[in-house]
Every structure is written in C-alpha cells, then in structure tokens.
TrEMBL record, chains A, B:
InterPro entries: Gfo/Idh/MocA-like_OxRdtase_N, Gfo/Idh/MocA_oxidrdct_glycsds, GFO_IDH_MocA-like_dom, Glc-Fru_OxRdtase_bac, NAD(P)-bd_dom_sf, TAT_signal. Signal peptide: none annotated. PROSITE patterns: TAT (PS51318). Residues 173-287 form the GFO/IDH/MocA-like oxidoreductase domain. It comes from Sphingomonas rustica. Residues 37-160 form the Gfo/Idh/MocA-like oxidoreductase N-terminal domain. Keywords: Oxidoreductase. This is Gfo/Idh/MocA family oxidoreductase.
C-alpha cells in the first residue's frame, strides 16, 4: 500500500488520495487543541447513526450544534452529545447560526430538495458547508450553491464518503499506478430494495428515484475509477408504474458512459434489487470490490496475470465519516478547496440530468464541458 | 440439481434443458448401433482441437468425412481419424457430398462470411446442418439459410455450445425455478485480447468485430438467462481506429437490452480486455458464473438470503461439444427441430444488426417481432 504519495494520481484521483503530511496551519491547529465546530442539520437516521457518533473521531472538528424540526430529537441528541439549549436550532431559527461563533461548519443532512436552500443559507451565515449527495435536485441549484459559497468566501464540500474510504482509495491508487494496464471497462453497480413510505420516493423531496439516491454511487465511482470525465452518456430506464412506490420516481435506470480514453462504463442504478460492486478491467487484468461502497466490510479482488485473489488491507485508524468531516475542517483551516468540492457534486448533477434526458429521449447525450 | 425435468422451463429455456428420456426413435437408433455421419467443413483450430476429438463421445453421431482447402490437413486428420480418401473433400468438390450416403450431418466451421454459402449448399445436398455462430454475416443471409433447410426438409442448428453445458443449464434452471425471485438485471461480459493477423479482424470474412465473435456470447446468454426476447436495444462503441487490428472491425461495443418483464441486461463485448462472466440478479438474490462460457473450469456463485457461496456440480459425463453434436443427430432421427435452431441464430443476428445500428446512430432501437 502506498496511499498518500504526492503526484501519483491524476484527474479525479488527484484530489482523492491526499498527502499524509499536515501543513503548518494544521500542525498549529492540532497543537492549540482548538477544533472547528459542526452544526448538523437534520437528525434523520444517517445523521444520528453514522455522523454524530463519528465526529468524536475527528482531529480537527467537534460537534457544537444541532438543527432539527423535531423538538424531541433536539432534546434527546442534545443531551446525549452535551449540546446546550443555546446551540439547538429549529428551522425557523436556523439563520441565527450566523451569530454563534462556536459553529464554523454546517453539515446539511436533509432531504435532497432542501440541500440548496439550507446550504446557501449556511454560506450566507458565513459558515463552511458539507452537504449530502446528491448535491441538489438540479444542476442549476448546484451552481447557485457554489456561487453562494464563493460569494461568502467559504468552503463547500459534498458528502462523497467513499472518497475517504481506504479500500476505495487503494483501488483508485492501483489503477492509477497501472496495475491493470489501460482501463477499458468499468462496471459499477448499486441498488437496493426501496421500502414504501420514504421521502426518497417522493419526487418533490428527492428530485428523482434510484439514480439520485444510490445510482449516484455508480456514477461517481465510474468517474473516480476511470479518473476521467464522461463525454457520452446513454441510459435505459425500467420502472413498473403500477407499483405505488414508483408513482413519481424511477425504479431502475442503467446507463453507459464513454470516457475520452475510449474506456466505457456500464452502470447500474436500482430500487428493486441489491447491488453493491464495481470493477475496473484493463488491458492487463482487473481490480474490483464487492461490496464496494458500504459502511463496513469492503472486499477487494484483483486478477492479474491470470490469477484471481483477494486483497487484505490493514484496519483503518479512522472511519470514512470522520475522515470526510475532518477534510472540510482542514480545508477551512488551510484556506483551500476541499476534496469532493461543490464542483465535484455539480459534475455528477450535470451527468444525472444527461442520464435522465437520454432515457427519456432514447438517444445518446454528448457532454459539453 | 433437477436438470432435465419436463415443463420446468419457459421461453428460451424450454429448449435448453431437454428431457432425459430417449424417444422410441432414439432407443431404436441406440439399439441398432447405427450412428449418423458428420462431415466437418473447415479444419481450423476450433475444428481440430475441440470438435474432432469429441465426436467420438457422441451416442448418435460419428465422424465420416472431412472438408478442407488444405490437402495437408485432409491427409493429416484423415489419417488420424480413419477417414478414407473417398470421404475427403476440397471446396471445389464440396457439392459431391450429396452422393455420399455416409454423410448425414454437416458441421460448418468456416469463417463467418462462408457460413451461409456452405450451409445452404449442404442443405441442397440433402444434409442436416450444424453451423458455427454467428450464423452468418447478416440477418438476410440467416433467413436464406433457414429457407434452404426448410425447402430441403432438413434440420438446421447453430453452434451455441453453452446451451449444452451443464453449469449454464443449471443456472438457467435455477433462475426459471425462481431461486433469485423476479430477474431484474443481467450482466453478461465477454471479451479477449484479439491478436493481429486473424480472419476475425477482416470485415469481409468476419462481418464485424468483437460483437460477431465474442460479444455474441454476452447477447445469447442475456437471452437465455432472462428467458425473454429484448424489446429495446442500445449500444456504445469504442474503437481505436489507429490500432491496425481495428482498421475494418470494431474493438469494444457494449450494449443494453430491455426485456418485456422490465429486466435490463448490461452487456460487454471487447477485443481489448478479457471478460468471461455473467450474473442474473433478481428480487431475492443473484446467481452467476465466472468464468461462464469457457471450454472448461466453469464456476458458479450464488447469493441468496444475504449469503454468497459457490455451487459445485458433479463432473459431466459428456462434453458440451459432444452433447451439441449429438443434438443435431437426435433431432434428425426424431424428425424435430433441434435446440439452438436456425431461428435462434436469426434472433441473435437481428439483435446484432440493431446493436450496430444503435451505436452508429446514437439512439435506442425498438425491436419489432
């Protein structure tokens, strides 16, 4: 394993594998013991089960505030994490975070339709923003979020946790080093059985179906595995509209991407079957993971020189969530763009719109940069 | 394993898993010891390494004649397999097989561009025909082959050996029995690195590139795994035309198929990287093989109820080639259509033409039945 070596990666990968040497600004921050404060906005299951417990692992950030529309949640998690009543906000009082110097960073974990509004309001309040993916319901909203962060001179980052997950980083690094030769095919498959009655099945809240929720993992992985930006997009949708879950959003939308090198990606996005895998095949062999982008239990397989075998990595010292949340804090301290910035989220949003257009119109869509 | 039970399979599968009880006509044939005679046309590496040695395993067929344009090959393999000079033909003398009562069956193993001509001439000579896949260079040629066999009241079969391979049959059977629930996604991936200087890279001989040669396995498997016929076809080609291998034929052409049930297939066809795998994912789990359609060493994996594991089958008593070659003999004896008939080959040819059209025109092609 040679993660973290400077200069090894190109393109998307360049931002994904970071240097292991802290800058002077970071060294100072560590020495002073001062951590930046996160307000977590939206206390759904992802926030309370995955994020809140992991902020404690951060070297540069701590939890300082909670935002929720449910008083009982504010009470419960406020007590559990020692957040005083002065640092608990409802949505009506959200803009008052501006006046709270203990809040440096805002993590937006709301339904997709609220991402743009609550990210922009946080930027206007002078805070750095980490927003869950998909970045917004539309590319236009994503552009507005980037503009708001820029106008406020604050950082904007999108919640691509796999960019901070060691197995994913290892696979990217192997591909960039040429372990599989020139990549020719990426397969990237994500899906799960969507249970009825969730906001993700309500288009005004979600902006779309499986592609917005889980297919975006296939899309983003195809980009970080190839290290390239697609130039051609083609998609095929399959949705049983008589299924009440799919009254307003798509079930399955599988798509193909073509990259400048000539590599093609065959991608899967599904709300009716379980998929969590990717593989990059090149002229010399392949490397892949199954499961690939899960919370835990990642599994890497490689085939080189006609032999297939697993790769075992040492146990990570920090979870993907802590590494992700630390990244925004570090970018804020160092005054630089974070990995998985707003620009990264916007690229996916433009591709998502092209995928939908291709399936709707039955034609290949050429991406213009 | 419950292969061979009547009535279990539908659609394509109905023909793939055959009854294990021989008919009266077959029982008579076995009892009399009389086997039908094969002429093998074209003595390239597939014929001499895979087919000739396996005809000896057949219960209903034997090798009785050889056809080749190379006298040294006729001499070598004629001697090796005890084929008298009277039963060795060059292409100029090919039509004289009509007068040889020891030839009942003709196996055409020539370059694709010669399939139609040599199959039709065999039909006109009153012989049953087994022709390698792809059936022909075009769907129009395939239709002419079917018409010629019908006019001669003789059988026509296409060399889809995987229809006779026990692991493939097991997987089909499991899917039809509902082991994975309703199939929602098929991935089917075939490719290899094409070496320069072969007839398969010369369009007039091959009719096309990877799709005609190896991608047809992905296409055919997607159909037999789903048990359905595609209604929508979409494809993306990627060929480095500066590579002298690809002056006239495509390298990579990956494609998507949509089936009437709503299932989608993501398929791979490549001359620049190695692929040999398929998987059917359904609402309850998945079953797949890697490698899937090789000569030997097939490997099945299943994931049901959150557990993944291999499936071991008992060693087959007869090779896929012998089972295939016996099938045409049995169909001839019983006076019925063989499995993997000309109609099956024609379906693939029509889909191949749609795949090429989709990639060329950048649009989805709807199949009309």
């Amino acid at each position: 394993m040679e993660l973290g070596r400077r200069g090894v990666l190109r393109g998307i990968g360049a931002g994904v594998v970071a240097s292991s040497l802290p800058s002077c600004a970071l060294a100072d921050a560590l020495q002073s013991g001062r951590k930046l404060g996160y307000a977590v906005v939206g206390l759904g299951s992802y926030a309370v089960n995955q994020l809140l417990p992991r902020i404690r692992e951060c070297d540069y950030a701590k939890l300082t505030a909670l935002v929720s529309g449910t008083p009982a949640k504010l009470e419960k998690y406020g007590a559990e994490y020692g957040i005083p009543k002065t640092h608990r906000y409802d949505y009506a009082g959200y803009d008052r975070i501006r006046d709270n110097p203990d809040i440096d960073l805002v993590y937006v974990v709301l339904p997709n339709s609220m991402h743009a509004e609550y990210s922009i309001r946080a930027s206007k309040a002078g805070k750095h923003v980490l927003c869950e993916k998909p970045m917004a319901n539309t590319a236009a909203e994503a552009e507005a979020m980037i503009a708001a962060a820029r106008a406020a001179n604050r950082r904007l980052m999108i919640g691509y946790r796999s960019h901070f997950e060691p197995h994913n980083l290892y696979v990217i690094d192997q591909i960039r080093k040429g372990a599989i030769g020139r990549p020719t095919l990426i397969t990237s498959e994500h899906g799960f059985y969507a249970k009825p009655g969730q906001w993700r099945l309500d288009r005004p809240m979600s902006g779309g179906g499986s592609l917005m929720d889980i297919g975006i993992y296939s899309l983003n992985a195809a980009r970080y595995l190839s290290g390239e930006e697609p130039v051609l997009v083609q998609a095929m949708e399959s949705t049983d509209r008589s299924d009440p879950r799919f009254a307003t959003v798509e079930d399955r939308i599988d798509f193909q991407l073509k990259f400048p090198s000539g590599a093609i990606a065959n991608c899967v996005s599904s709300y009716s079957s379980n998929h969590n895998a990717f593989r990059a095949t090149g002229t010399k062999g392949w490397i892949g993971m199954e499961p690939a982008t899960v919370y835990d239990g990642h599994s890497i397989f490689v085939r080189i020189d006609g032999k297939t075998g697993p790769v075992e990595l040492p146990k990570a010292t920090k979870s993907q969530w802590a590494a992700q949340m630390d990244e925004l804090a570090k970018a804020a301290i160092e005054g630089r763009e974070p990995r998985a910035s707003g620009a990264e989220g916007l690229r996916d949003m433009r591709l998502i719109e092209a995928i939908y257009a291709s399936a709707r119109e039955g034609r290949a869509i050429r991406m213009t940069s």
